[in-house]
Protein backbone atom coordinates (compact mmCIF):
# COMPACT_ATOMS: atom_id res chain seq x y z
CA UNK A 1 0.00 0.00 0.00
CA UNK A 2 2.86 2.40 0.83
CA UNK A 3 4.52 1.88 -2.55
CA UNK A 4 1.17 2.34 -4.28
CA UNK A 5 0.72 5.61 -2.40
CA UNK A 6 4.22 6.77 -3.37
CA UNK A 7 3.64 5.85 -7.01
CA UNK A 8 0.38 7.78 -6.87
CA UNK A 9 2.19 10.85 -5.52
CA UNK A 10 4.66 10.53 -8.39
CA UNK A 11 1.77 10.60 -10.83
CA UNK A 12 1.95 6.95 -11.82
CA UNK A 13 -1.37 5.54 -12.96
CA UNK A 14 -2.09 1.83 -13.11
CA UNK A 15 -0.48 0.58 -16.32
CA UNK A 16 -3.24 -1.98 -16.71
CA UNK A 17 -6.30 0.28 -16.75
CA UNK A 18 -5.01 3.83 -16.41
CA UNK A 19 -6.82 4.30 -13.10
CA UNK A 20 -5.37 5.17 -9.71
CA UNK A 21 -2.93 2.78 -8.06
CA UNK A 22 -4.19 1.21 -4.84
CA UNK A 23 -1.37 -1.40 -4.77
CA UNK A 24 2.27 -1.42 -5.92
CA UNK A 25 2.84 -1.44 -9.70
CA UNK A 26 -0.66 -2.67 -10.64
CA UNK A 27 -4.07 -1.88 -9.16
CA UNK A 28 -6.05 -4.55 -7.30
CA UNK A 29 -8.71 -4.79 -10.01
CA UNK A 30 -6.12 -5.52 -12.70
CA UNK A 31 -4.32 -7.97 -10.43
CA UNK A 32 -7.55 -9.92 -10.11
CA UNK A 33 -7.52 -10.44 -13.89
CA UNK A 34 -4.04 -11.95 -13.91
CA UNK A 35 -4.65 -15.60 -14.52
CA UNK A 36 -3.05 -17.95 -17.02
CA UNK A 37 -4.57 -19.09 -20.28
CA UNK A 38 -3.34 -22.32 -21.80
CA UNK A 39 -3.54 -23.23 -25.45
CA UNK A 40 -1.53 -26.09 -26.84
CA UNK A 41 2.09 -25.59 -25.87
CA UNK A 42 1.62 -21.93 -24.93
CA UNK A 43 0.67 -20.05 -21.76
CA UNK A 44 -0.25 -16.36 -21.78
CA UNK A 45 -2.19 -13.81 -19.76
CA UNK A 46 -4.54 -12.36 -22.36
CA UNK A 47 -5.05 -10.29 -25.46
CA UNK A 48 -2.75 -7.42 -26.34
CA UNK A 49 -5.75 -5.11 -26.40
CA UNK A 50 -6.13 -5.70 -22.67
CA UNK A 51 -2.51 -5.99 -21.54
CA UNK A 52 -0.69 -3.91 -24.14
CA UNK A 53 -0.21 -0.97 -21.77
CA UNK A 54 1.33 -3.30 -19.21
CA UNK A 55 3.72 -4.64 -21.82
CA UNK A 56 4.74 -1.11 -22.82
CA UNK A 57 5.16 -0.06 -19.17
CA UNK A 58 7.58 -2.92 -18.59
CA UNK A 59 9.29 -2.54 -21.96
CA UNK A 60 9.67 1.23 -22.15
CA UNK A 61 8.57 2.65 -18.81
CA UNK A 62 11.07 0.82 -16.60
CA UNK A 63 8.26 -0.41 -14.35
CA UNK A 64 10.33 -3.33 -13.09
CA UNK A 65 7.87 -4.17 -10.33
CA UNK A 66 5.56 -5.59 -12.98
CA UNK A 67 7.88 -8.53 -13.75
CA UNK A 68 7.23 -10.56 -10.57
CA UNK A 69 3.49 -9.80 -10.74
CA UNK A 70 3.25 -11.08 -14.31
CA UNK A 71 5.59 -14.01 -13.75
CA UNK A 72 3.49 -15.55 -10.99
CA UNK A 73 0.40 -16.42 -13.09
CA UNK A 74 2.62 -17.58 -15.95
CA UNK A 75 4.43 -19.93 -13.57
CA UNK A 76 1.07 -21.14 -12.28
CA UNK A 77 0.02 -21.88 -15.86
CA UNK A 78 3.16 -23.94 -16.42
CA UNK A 79 2.44 -25.94 -13.28
CA UNK A 80 -1.16 -26.49 -14.38
CA UNK A 81 0.05 -27.73 -17.76
CA UNK A 82 2.39 -30.22 -16.12
CA UNK A 83 5.30 -29.54 -18.46
CA UNK A 84 8.44 -31.32 -17.28
CA UNK A 85 10.96 -28.57 -17.90
CA UNK A 86 14.72 -28.50 -17.58
CA UNK A 87 15.12 -24.75 -17.74
CA UNK A 88 13.88 -21.34 -18.85
CA UNK A 89 15.20 -19.04 -21.57
CA UNK A 90 14.12 -15.73 -23.07
CA UNK A 91 13.94 -14.37 -26.60
CA UNK A 92 17.08 -12.18 -26.75
CA UNK A 93 17.40 -8.65 -28.03
CA UNK A 94 20.26 -7.11 -29.96
CA UNK A 95 23.29 -6.07 -27.92
CA UNK A 96 23.06 -2.33 -28.90
CA UNK A 97 19.41 -2.28 -27.82
CA UNK A 98 20.29 -4.06 -24.58
CA UNK A 99 23.04 -1.55 -23.86
CA UNK A 100 20.76 1.38 -24.67
CA UNK A 101 17.82 0.18 -22.58
CA UNK A 102 19.86 -1.52 -19.90
CA UNK A 103 17.67 -4.61 -19.73
CA UNK A 104 15.74 -7.10 -21.84
CA UNK A 105 12.05 -7.25 -20.72
CA UNK A 106 11.54 -10.93 -21.67
CA UNK A 107 14.64 -11.78 -19.65
CA UNK A 108 13.30 -9.99 -16.56
CA UNK A 109 10.14 -12.03 -16.88
CA UNK A 110 11.97 -15.29 -17.59
CA UNK A 111 14.22 -14.94 -14.56
CA UNK A 112 11.21 -14.49 -12.30
CA UNK A 113 9.35 -17.43 -13.83
CA UNK A 114 12.44 -19.62 -13.45
CA UNK A 115 12.80 -18.60 -9.81
CA UNK A 116 9.16 -19.43 -9.06
CA UNK A 117 9.46 -22.80 -10.78
CA UNK A 118 12.78 -23.63 -9.13
CA UNK A 119 14.45 -23.99 -12.53
CA UNK A 120 17.67 -22.53 -13.95
CA UNK A 121 17.50 -19.50 -16.21
CA UNK A 122 20.14 -19.47 -18.92
CA UNK A 123 21.00 -17.19 -21.82
CA UNK A 124 20.96 -19.98 -24.34
CA UNK A 125 20.40 -17.77 -27.40
CA UNK A 126 21.81 -14.64 -28.94
CA UNK A 127 20.21 -12.42 -31.54
CA UNK A 128 22.37 -12.06 -34.62
CA UNK A 129 20.61 -9.31 -36.55
CA UNK A 130 17.79 -6.78 -36.63
CA UNK A 131 14.39 -7.75 -37.96
CA UNK A 132 11.37 -5.45 -38.42
CA UNK A 133 8.29 -5.79 -36.25
CA UNK A 134 5.97 -8.52 -37.39
CA UNK A 135 2.45 -7.85 -38.72
CA UNK A 136 -0.50 -8.87 -36.60
CA UNK A 137 -1.88 -11.05 -39.37
CA UNK A 138 -0.30 -13.23 -41.95
CA UNK A 139 2.18 -14.89 -39.59
CA UNK A 140 4.97 -14.08 -42.06
CA UNK A 141 7.48 -16.56 -40.69
CA UNK A 142 9.39 -16.82 -43.95
CA UNK A 143 9.99 -13.05 -43.95
CA UNK A 144 12.50 -13.50 -41.11
CA UNK A 145 15.95 -14.98 -41.77
CA UNK A 146 16.43 -18.47 -40.42
CA UNK A 147 19.64 -17.43 -38.67
CA UNK A 148 18.00 -14.55 -36.77
CA UNK A 149 18.99 -16.30 -33.53
CA UNK A 150 21.87 -18.61 -32.71
CA UNK A 151 22.50 -20.92 -29.74
CA UNK A 152 25.46 -20.08 -27.54
CA UNK A 153 25.45 -23.21 -25.39
CA UNK A 154 24.04 -26.72 -25.33
CA UNK A 155 20.94 -27.74 -23.41
CA UNK A 156 18.85 -30.87 -23.06
CA UNK A 157 15.26 -31.77 -22.29
CA UNK A 158 12.20 -29.52 -22.55
CA UNK A 159 12.57 -25.76 -22.13
CA UNK A 160 10.28 -22.80 -21.62
CA UNK A 161 10.89 -19.81 -23.91
CA UNK A 162 9.63 -16.39 -22.76
CA UNK A 163 8.73 -13.34 -24.83
CA UNK A 164 6.65 -10.30 -23.90
CA UNK A 165 4.22 -10.44 -26.85
CA UNK A 166 3.32 -13.04 -29.46
CA UNK A 167 2.47 -11.06 -32.59
CA UNK A 168 2.65 -13.10 -35.79
CA UNK A 169 4.59 -15.94 -34.19
CA UNK A 170 7.49 -15.41 -36.60
CA UNK A 171 10.05 -14.19 -34.06
CA UNK A 172 9.11 -16.85 -31.55
CA UNK A 173 9.35 -19.54 -34.21
CA UNK A 174 12.90 -18.51 -35.13
CA UNK A 175 13.94 -18.42 -31.48
CA UNK A 176 12.29 -21.79 -30.91
CA UNK A 177 14.20 -23.27 -33.84
CA UNK A 178 17.47 -21.99 -32.39
CA UNK A 179 16.64 -23.46 -28.99
CA UNK A 180 15.94 -26.81 -30.61
CA UNK A 181 19.30 -26.52 -32.39
CA UNK A 182 20.85 -26.01 -28.96
CA UNK A 183 19.63 -29.47 -28.01
CA UNK A 184 16.20 -28.88 -26.48
CA UNK A 185 13.87 -31.82 -27.05
CA UNK A 186 10.79 -29.61 -26.85
CA UNK A 187 10.10 -25.89 -26.51
CA UNK A 188 7.05 -24.39 -24.81
CA UNK A 189 6.12 -20.71 -24.99
CA UNK A 190 5.04 -18.13 -22.43
CA UNK A 191 3.91 -14.55 -23.11
CA UNK A 192 2.29 -11.62 -21.37
CA UNK A 193 -0.01 -10.91 -24.29
CA UNK A 194 -1.05 -12.26 -27.68
CA UNK A 195 -1.88 -10.01 -30.63
CA UNK A 196 -3.06 -12.67 -33.07
CA UNK A 197 -4.83 -15.70 -31.52
CA UNK A 198 -4.17 -17.59 -34.74
CA UNK A 199 -0.46 -17.50 -33.94
CA UNK A 200 -1.14 -19.81 -30.98
CA UNK A 201 -1.56 -22.77 -33.30
CA UNK A 202 0.92 -25.65 -33.28
CA UNK A 203 4.32 -25.00 -34.85
CA UNK A 204 5.77 -27.41 -37.35
Automatic annotation (TrEMBL):
<dbReference type="InterPro" id="IPR029057">
    <property type="entry name" value="PRTase-like"/>
</dbReference>
<dbReference type="InterPro" id="IPR051910">
    <property type="entry name" value="ComF/GntX_DNA_util-trans"/>
</dbReference>
<protein>
    <submittedName>
        <fullName>Competence protein F-like protein, phosphoribosyltransferase domain</fullName>
    </submittedName>
</protein>
<dbReference type="InterPro" id="IPR000836">
    <property type="entry name" value="PRTase_dom"/>
</dbReference>
<comment type="similarity">
    <text>Belongs to the ComF/GntX family.</text>
</comment>
